[in-house]
Amino acid sequence: MSFFGLDCVRKKERELERKLRANDREYNLSFRYATNAIKTSKYNFFTFLPLNLFEQFQRIANAYFLFLLVLQVIPQISSLSWFTTVVPLVLVLSVTAAKDATDDINRHKSDNQVNNRKVQVLIDRKLSSEKWMNVQVGDIIKLENNQFVTADLLLLSSSEPLNLVYIETAELDGETNLKVRQALTVTGDLGDDIEKLADFDGEVRCEPPNNRLDRFTGTLTCSSQKYPLDNEKILLRGCTLRNTEWCFGLVLFGGPETKLMQNCGKSTFKRTSVDRLMNILVLCIFGFLAFMCTILAIGNYLWELNEGSGFTVFLPRLDGNNAGFSAFLTFWSYVIILNTVVPISLYVSVEIIRLGNSFYIDWDRKMYYARNDTPAEARTTTLNEELGQIKYVFSDKTGTLTQNIMTFNKCSINGKSYGDVYDYSGQRLEITEHTETVDFSFNELADPRFVFHDHSLVEAVKLENPEVQAFFKLLSLCHTVMAEEKKEGELFYLAQSPDEGALVTAARNFGFVFRSRTPDSISIVEMGKQSSYQLLAILDFNNVRKRMSVIVRSPEGKLSLYCKGADTIIYERLHHSCSKLMDVTTEHLNEFAGEGLRTLALAYKDLDEGYFTQWKQRHHEASTCLDNRESKLEQLYEEIEKDLMLLGATAIEDKLQDGVPQTIEQLSKADIKIWVLTGDKQETAENIGYSCNLLREEMNEVFIISGNSLDDVRQELRNARTSMKPNEADDSIFLPGRTLGNGVIPDEVVNGEYGLVINGHSLAYALDHTVELEFLKTACMCKAVICCRVTPLQKAQVVELVKKYKRAVTLAIGDGANDVSMIKAAHIGVGISGQEGMQAVLSSDYSFAQFRFLQRLLLVHGRWSYLRMCKFLRYFFYKNFTFTFVHFWYAFFCGFSAQTVYDEWFITLYNLVYTALPVLGMSLFDQDVNDVWSFQHPQLYVPGQLNLYFSKTAFFKCALHSCYSSLVLFFIPYAAMHSTVRDDGKDVADYQSFAVLTQTCLLFAVTIQLGFEMCYWTAVNTVFVLGSLAMYFAVTFTMYSNGLFLVLPSAFPFMGTARNSLNQPNVWLTVVLTSILCLLPVVTHRFLLMLLSPTINDKVMFKVRKAKATPPPPPRRTRIRRTSSRRSGYAFSHAQGYGDLVTSGRFLRRPVTSRSSGFTNAGRTTTGFSPMGRSAGYSPTGKAQNTKVPDVEVTSLQMYRTITNTTL
């Protein structure tokens, strides 16, 4: 890295294989590998000015004003002073540059903060504290608990038995579940012996830097032995070390070459669609300006030839100044005079409007999250109106839609449902935060943060109901959770998925406490009694089995198999005697599924000793077999998991953030398509899709794309498309040529609603250049799309694909570092300040704390910003075109001499003073309907998606309106002043009087037009409008006074013109007449349009006027319940289970020496029944969850998690 932050890594050729040697910097430096410093900023001290100016002059108007400035310093053609252009141009460039500099300084600070973190590096046979930026490939570094992983490392050794480490990968894939990595035995023996580590000279040959998070290939050569390396031995930058005292690692990739940074998109200069349209329109305006100037130059040439010779007595020509040269000078003179078609004040005003609307977002108290003291923040001020045009929203799932907190909500045991609360009349009650909770004080080992409301379940446990006790015994035994007890009675659980943690925590609170485990035993506390079960086998979970089982021997010697899994899988393996119980449990499962809960069926089986001994022998032979090991084990699992006895079912809620279903429903009504891009497994993502109303039972079909080859994926996409549009010919479905201009794919209308779910490996094929169009066309026909198991780079690729082929504005929203590339790729990036750090927020354009605030950002702030900006542009072009076209008509009456029709002071102050504040007032305060009506009618958002408020058509209409108004404003005053005398008989038909009359008519006409444009009048708007008119008269009478003329005669030549002209009745009659004639077509057009073809805005505004009062409050938000037969599958984990690891003993921790049962007298004591019900939360991170803030109302969604270790 250079001094100024530029990465100085230069590669002679593309790296095909990485070679490095431990503890040998000289050898590794020869390959010029990147250092561990990162750079996300765009500029440095020397590049800021040229790069920023280059970006700003991409706005054609800025380049035009620079060109105009050059013309104005040429005295032969300039009729206006040069400072009238240079001052506003420098102001615009400076303000924008200051804003960009501030943003980049923040990026530099963030980079410096990361680069200057400290880590212990083994240098010269001792550990030294070094900055991250100084770490190099081949260094050996030491990490300690809760530290971020510095670079991509090969794990060498750790403090845990068998060299395991526990990591959290939230910054990479959004998952907060702990994952396990294990070092090679040969390096694990190095331990923390500095001498051995310093002598380690292993050589690594591995893959070059890439963005694949889920795979790694390489070899380690040590002591002439070669060892294979895979992803299970690698610690990636962005992970956090958890529950591991220390570990040592060898740096493989640093800085920009790490997989985390390889997945981060580049910072791009974002411009709104309005900006891009403005560039096109400005080009058209310049062409039209050149056309007008050419006509006037030709007119000057003809006039000089025919009439000009008669004026040479009064205006002698300079030598060589013939008619042709005069026309040439006239052309450039009119370029300067008519430049007001695109005044620089337009861009000054645009920046002010955007800044003001950004403040509205920052100040919105309805987007403030009091619990975390987090307000909404507009981190950029240039994209506000784009928020009103969003068509596609790309959302992360974990931490964005959900809180990643699983809560044990309900259960069904032996045909009885628990979890709901009823009053004494049998009516089910709604559970709120004020509902009384179950008292677990009888159990000293209970988690105090576990919440449940149905007292009947704990009563059944205390009454020793055998089915209920068997139910919770299964939950306490059948899992791969690991327990730690650093203090007596203070348990916390490490689970590979929050689902398992929630179930084990529920069993713990109901009296069946999982305490510890060894490779061959599980210790639990059953209603105060310590018990140890012999663990004989774990039949682990995977995505095909969708279940897991354990075989245990009780203290009494009884052999049992306990199984839990997806209900459809368990039902296939039940004993026929369970049919009646299965029917009742199915009804409960349907009810749970209707509420969007994740369900799981539980069953058991008593085993015969002789059969199990024989089965165990076959199991051992299959597990040591080299050929077809997995299929042989699967056959054995199928054999023993038969004739099970059903116990019941659990219902877990994957806690959505507040208001997520309502927000998605509102956005869907606004015709915004939502795509969820998540690193989670397919089943988990589907469950959340149904929970948050993204996928619905009412949909015609939800297509699952899971092909394992290019052809399979293509065929599945084709089948899905055929199902949606069966009449479309197969041969022409996917022709790449069927696009609009610029390769844009048109939207296709289908009958019905469809959903699409595609997993990560299939998505990799779908994004291939030969299939991407098929994937996009099929996906865009669906109402909702869910992409599972996607990498951060794939998220960005999906966004880029939509941007490339759809004429639509995209928004990406996420909360973790794995969402950064997606946020950068989209037109608008939104960061949620959640549990996964601030990387997403730092890379975003807007940020807030909860997903539900997105509907207010888009449907209120976005729509208002777009509406205001479009009204501003239409009106601004109207008033300036009208102003400029009057010059054009006047040229035919002044000999094409480039004389201005207005007073020079009026030209200077027209955009700066007389019309600036009224249009800014409209652009900052106007709204067609208030926020409540905006939410009640989300269809109001659709016109923004279709660019109906400002487009090339709207601009053309505006130009025609301006042309008509300019004709009225020139010829009506001209006719009124022609051969006219004052009341006293004196002549008033002079140039100065005509100028005053014309500019007065112009100002009144455009001001009244502004009044017609505004829908929402405020005191500020009124003061701005009336104040600007008052300012015009005050300035005009002052400028045209005798006093100023005597002080500066050349600067104030219109002495007495105002008072001599504006005291005449015919002048005011002319003002009234021109105003009426200018507005009459507008009023007529609007009346006919509203009568014959009213827009959605017209209809809603009519409703508002009809209401004549504040609209009724929105309906009370209730929990959305679905009646459905679909049961959401249970997600055990996001990967293969921990079964092998558990039974191997590799994970074991040092045991706590003394234990007590931790129970008070349980007996059959009962507590009074109190109606109410919902349960506890578990999250694997161990961070405090939803801690109650003083003086802030806590909602019913406040749940707690099991882990109590404050160091997590």
Tell me the Rg in angstroms: 37 Å
Tell me how many strands there are.
Answer: 36
Q: What is the multimeric organization of the chains shown?
A: single chain
Major sheet attributes? 10 strands, antiparallel
Structural classification: alpha+beta
What's the N-to-C terminus distance? 34 Å
- How much of the sequence lies in strands comes to 15-25%
Shape: elongated
Helix content: 40-55%
Mean pLDDT reading: 82
Low-confidence regions? 1-12, 730-738, 1147-1208
Tally of separate helices: 39
GO molecular function: ATP binding; ATP hydrolysis activity; flippase activity; magnesium ion binding; phospholipid transporter activity
Main location: membrane
Subcellular location: Endomembrane system; Membrane
Family: Belongs to the cation transport ATPase (P-type) (TC 3.A.3) family. Type IV subfamily.
Concise synopsis of the structure shown:
With 1208 residues, this protein is an alpha+beta fold. A hairpin with a 5-residue loop joins strand 18 (421-422) and strand 19 (428-429).
Task: Describe what you observe in this structure.
The chain is of the alpha+beta class and 1208 residues long. Helices cover 41% and strands 16% of the residues. The protein is built from 39 helices and 36 strands. Strands 16, 17, 22, 23, 24, 25, 26, 27, 28 and 36 form a ten-stranded antiparallel beta sheet that branches. The protein has a nine-stranded mixed beta sheet with strand order 14-35-34-33-15-29-32-31-30, sandwiched between helices. A six-stranded antiparallel beta sheet has the order 3-2-4-13-5-11. A hairpin with a 5-residue loop joins β18 (421-422) and β19. The two termini are 34 Å apart.
